[in-house]
Amino acid sequence: MNVGNGKLNTSDKILLVAIDLMAEKGFKTVTTKEIATAAGISEMTLYRHFGSKKNLLEQGIDRFHYTWEMQKLFKEKLVWDLQTDLLLISKTYHEVMSRNGKMFLITLKERHNLPGIQKKMKNYPQQLKEMLTDYFTRMQVRGKMIPTNPETQAMSFIWMNYGAFMTNLIADEPFTDVSMEEFMTTSVALFARGLTP
Predict the structure, then answer these.
(1) What is the pLDDT of residues 143-172, one digit of tens each?
(2) CA distances from 64 to 30, 45, 67, 143, 173 (A)
(3) Nearest residue to 59 (alpha-carbon basis) of 68, 67, 49, 69
(4) Domain covering 65-195, topology
């Protein structure tokens, strides 16, 4: 996992170390002392930045999830061509989700033990669904997409990408010889073709 610009502040460094250790040992098993030691800081510094191990995990989820990158994409990078836009959305989604795979696995494991995490896990896909629904609605208004239920198409697109991500994330060995790049290009082309007037 990385944070993009290569420069880590103390909080990001703690978060990255914590995510690695939580993924390796489990949230319940890893201690704040182990996290602090691995991050090269005192346990007191960890508590000053995050207050608790639970808060550390929750801030990690907020810091490294895809929502802010997707919001920027939807605000600044759309060209209003269905296939081009959907391919960019798909590639961005997979890039961020793959980069943050460890965080995603931790949240899946801990969602029932920590109710705040379960709520966060629902918020991110909900926000992506809203962005995609709005995009599909606007594409219909522009006459660049067939009349259909925009929310249904948003969910179909999310499930297509989420399914591919999960298959790769949890597979012990490659599920297929088809590369992720080929999957995205082909599936987005088919998806766009089906929605283009």
Answers:
(1) 999 999 999 999 999 999 988 888 877 776
(2) 20, 21, 9, 36, 26
(3) 49
(4) Tetracycline Repressor; domain 2 (1.10.357)
Whether the CB-CB separation of 160 and 191 falls below 8 Å is answered with: yes
Handedness of CA 134, 136, 139, 143 (dihedral sign): negative
Ordered by start, the domain boundaries in the chain are 10-59, 65-195
Residue 185: is its pLDDT beyond 60? yes
Question: DSSP assignment of 66-111, as one string?
Answer: SHHHHHHHHHHT--S-HHHHHHHHHHHHHHHHHHTHHHHHHHHHHT
**Top CATH class, 10-59:** mainly alpha
Token pair of 162 as six digits: 């989420």
Cβ atoms 55, 101 nearer than 8 A: no
Report how far residue 14's alpha carbon sits from residue 125's, in angstroms, rounded to the nearest whole number. Answer: 26
- Dihedral of CA 113/103/124/128: which sign? negative
CA dihedral (89, 91, 92, 98) positive or negative: positive
Residue that the structure tokens 């009349």 belong to: 147
pTM of this prediction exceeds 0.85 = no
